[in-house]
């Protein structure tokens, strides 16, 4: 069995969530902090050898006081992230143990990831060195101009919405990041490999694995998680 290190990206500013109290990844959903749901999904796996939570320096004191004990109980290592998502991923990558060949990067804002999806994207990464979860576009896509007028309907038959985890052979991911001219601009890790011409496999995921972006997303996530435990 191959070993995987999992980097849980939780160092964002949560600006679209717009909560005065707590960033989205630390907000309780179904009775525990959002990041804990994904952490549990990975911590229980025999093929996960290391779990790294990347948080923002500005959240360090709060986390230490309120949530560090939960992380310790799960064996989660905490590191500080950077200004952009890719910077946080690189901080997490630097903490991955040298003996671990595969790395999965998952948004801590995606608490509903399914075990079966993780199984499939892990297997795909072992077979191809690089694989991501994604869902096919299910709506009609429009391109609009600056005035908000529709310019075209974009053919969607080959379009996917990237999700996470995104899983890579560690040497391939490190090489792509090292080769990329400006990785901080990347909004996901697959695009780092794409820029260097490395093929990335898509694994179809469940639409349940949404990324919490705004407060409205909490309703769906709360219902989804509660329906799994009821
Ligand atoms: N510098 C950053 C930016 C984002 N993330 C993480 O990457 C995931 C996806 O990012 P996003 O949903 O955009 O989170 P935020 O950047 O916090 O959201 P916003 O853009 O609304 O500020 C989140 O779990 C977020 O915490 C991170 O670890 N480090
Ligand atoms: C990584 C990601 O969740 C894949 O869809 C997405 O790119 C994160 O983007 P965000 O702007 O940081 O939410």
Automatic annotation (TrEMBL):
Pathway: Isoprenoid biosynthesis; isopentenyl diphosphate biosynthesis via DXP pathway; isopentenyl diphosphate from 1-deoxy-D-xylulose 5-phosphate: step 2/6. It catalyses: 2-C-methyl-D-erythritol 4-phosphate + CTP + H(+) = 4-CDP-2-C-methyl-D-erythritol + diphosphate. Pfam families: IspD. The keyword Nucleotidyltransferase applies. One of its GO terms (biological process) is isopentenyl diphosphate biosynthetic process, methylerythritol 4-phosphate pathway. Its EC number is 2.7.7.60. PANTHER family: 2-C-METHYL-D-ERYTHRITOL 4-PHOSPHATE CYTIDYLYLTRANSFERASE, CHLOROPLASTIC. Belongs to the IspD/TarI cytidylyltransferase family. IspD subfamily. This is 2-C-methyl-D-erythritol 4-phosphate cytidylyltransferase. It comes from Aureliella helgolandensis.
């Amino acid at each position: 069995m191959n070993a995987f290190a999992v980097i849980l990206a939780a160092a964002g500013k949560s600006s679209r969530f717009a909560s005065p109290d707590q960033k989205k990844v630390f907000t309780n959903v179904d009775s525990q902090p959002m990041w804990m749901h994904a952490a549990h999904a990975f911590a229980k796996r025999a093929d996960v050898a290391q779990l790294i939570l990347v948080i923002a320096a500005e959240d360090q004191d709060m986390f230490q006081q309120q949530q560090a004990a939960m992380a310790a109980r799960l064996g989660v290592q905490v590191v500080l992230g950077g200004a952009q998502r890719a910077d946080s991923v690189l901080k997490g990558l630097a903490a991955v143990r040298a003996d671990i060949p595969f790395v999965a990067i998952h948004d801590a804002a995606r608490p509903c990831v399914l075990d079966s999806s993780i199984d499939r994207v892990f297997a795909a990464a072992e077979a191809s060195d690089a694989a991501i979860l994604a869902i096919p576009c299910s709506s009609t896509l429009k391109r609009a101009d600056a005035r908000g007028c529709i310019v075209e309907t974009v053919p969607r038959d080959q379009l996917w919405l990237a999700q996470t985890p995104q899983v890579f052979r560690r040497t391939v991911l490190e090489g792509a990041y090292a080769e990329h001219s400006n990785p901080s601009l990347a909004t996901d890790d697959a695009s780092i490999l794409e820029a260097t011409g490395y093929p990335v496999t898509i694994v179809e995921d469940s639409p349940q694995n949404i990324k919490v972006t705004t407060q409205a997303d909490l309703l769906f996530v709360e219902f989804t998680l509660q329906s799994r435990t009821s």
